[in-house]
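User: Second chain of the day. Same drill as before.
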Amino acid sequence: MKEENIDKNTSIILSGRVSINRSYNGFTVDKEYDIRILIPLNNDELPDVWDIGNHIDKSYIHRYPDGELCLETKAFIALCFYNGCSLLQWMENIVEPYYYSYEYFSRFGEFPYGDRGHDLVGVIETYQQIFDENDCAKVYKLLQAISRRKYKGHLPCPCESGLITRRCHGRFIYPFISDDYLFSIAKNDYSSLCEAIKEYDKQSNH
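Assistant: Same format as last time:
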């Protein structure tokens, strides 16, 4: 991996070859991939990866037209870094599994670790995982509470379970309330969800 370009005010760009050696269900991937990584120097931005060796088929659903990889949702990756994930761990736990999943999918037509939906479906699935909550209505209420940026651990949880927040979803929503970057992501996701619901209601009434 070598430095391709450095702008001390914005980002570091690295390009080179990474080796993937992983196995699952008896299927092993031992290959090298040419990639470019953009590492923002601003803590309020996330690193991006491009497939510069054209190893990923252009029709693959988790690859953007310009070669950028759709690794995960912003909320999921941002929370990983909030919880202390290093760039090396990001490579090992997010980037490498992406390539392995692609090869597995190409061979078997299914994903080894499950698949995240795109757009708002993926956003909702992300918060279901983060909040440890399958009920979409409760996920919506928790995002609504985050968007208001008020955390009172002794008050009833926004999910309306009847428990106080600190004994229910408090530990899951607190990072999004206390951290400015996580809050901005959650608030934006909540706004997008509200717009989608309004549009759905509008279409349903016609």
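Strands lie at 2-7, 11-24, 27-40, 48-51.

User: Great, on to the next one.
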